[in-house]
Amino acid sequence: MHQLQFRRVVAALAGRCRWPRPGLGTALIGARIFVAFALPSLVLAHEAHPVAPSVAHSADERAFLEENDAAMTKMMNEMAAKPTGDIDRDFVAMMNPHHQGAIDMAVIELRYGKNEQLRRIAQEIIVDQMQEIAAMKLAIGEPATDTTPAPTQPPSVPAANVHHQGMQMDMSAGMKK
């Protein structure tokens, strides 16, 4: 039935056009309809494919891109946690890698970034996300893990042996179950 209605609409539109040959108007309307429906699909299909990685211009940029790609891949793989049936634990199991990914990317910014404002934001991200991870673990009854400073030197440089006491969290009564 829809096909019959479509043909009637096309015929009515073609009848209004005053073309030297009757088939030309119908062909032009058909071409317009085809472009109107096909073009968005082609554009969206093109955007869905990943863009080829850009060429790094320096050793630092190449290292930044490689480490950032590794951090993103690790985060995405770890976020695909198998459901346990406990919504709260599943939420924490997916959010922890998400927050850790933000920490890892902020550390990479500290290693290679030059913009002081962005470096300060990266430091804040590390602190905030570590606190969020600890709070989520405590909320589901898991112990908050000890925290150590995030290494800001590339992996090939040995980090200093620095130890800090674990983060102490005081959950307010509103956060406890």
Q: How would you summarize what this structure contains?
A:
With 177 residues, the chain is an all-alpha fold.
Structure description:
By secondary structure, the chain is mainly α. The chain is built from five helices and no strands. The chain has helices spanning 2-16, 22-48, 59-79, 87-112, 116-139. Helix 1 crosses helix 2 (22-48) and helix 4 packs antiparallel against helix 5 (116-139). Mean pLDDT is 75; it is low at 157-177.
Key terms:
177 residues, mainly alpha
N- and C-termini, Cα separation: 59 Å
Mean pLDDT: 75
The string of secondary-structure elements, in order, is: HHHHH
Number of strands: 0
Radius of gyration: 28 Å
Structural class estimated from helices and strands? mainly alpha
The outline comes out as elongated
